[in-house]
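$ run holo --ligand "PRP" --emit tokens
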Amino acid sequence: MAQMINVALPKGRLGEKVLAIFEACGYDCPSIHETNRKLIFENEQAGVRYFWVKPSDVSIYVERGAADIGVAGKDILLEYAPDVYELYDLDIGKCRMAVAACRGFHDNTERTLRVATKFPNIATTFYNKKGRDIDIIKLNGSIEIAPILRMSDVIVDIVETGTTLKENNLEPIETIVPISARLISNKVSYKFKNKEISKLQQAIAEYCAQKKDKI
Ligand code: PRP
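-- output --
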């Protein structure tokens, strides 16, 4: 008998897009569209159980096996390096990790660079490769304020449209890495539910490839 696949979905706009893709691939779940504050939904016939979780927590649920699979941004995978398989690049939720600063900023390399970010590991790896001395200021949101108030020299953050930077008189200086949403799997589930997960992965890959052809 086919086993149920437990899927951690990132709450928010990206999660809605991900759910639409899964549903178009035959993993629909009518109860998830009812308005309520439930967090877990299942459709036994389709063999799927969905949970809404905070986007940055998806990889934790998958790594620990509470979810068999999930969709997480490459930013989260790079920052936390969870022990999961990255199965497929969904090519949605596209943005980039970038360094930004106040317009006209010039780096004085004789001084330690103060870097405000939600992504200390990505920032540290990036500057270590350059051999640049940095002081990380770990923040949890609204990173753009740090250089405006002169608390940091630069920020390392997600840039999507660039509007937040522009409206705060900041400018991107350098792209660190392009980001998109990835289908990830728990390593043990991938072995023991291989038939189910591979089938889902293939359906999603085919659907995404078809969509790309149409663009
Ligand atoms: C992200 C990111 C930027 C903004 C970039 O913030 O940290 O602030 O989106 O998007 P844009 O280039 O399209 O303007 P998020 O909305 O996740 O909130 P946060 O400030 O709490 O990190």
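-- notes --
Residues 141-144, 157-164 surround PRP (CB under 6 Å).
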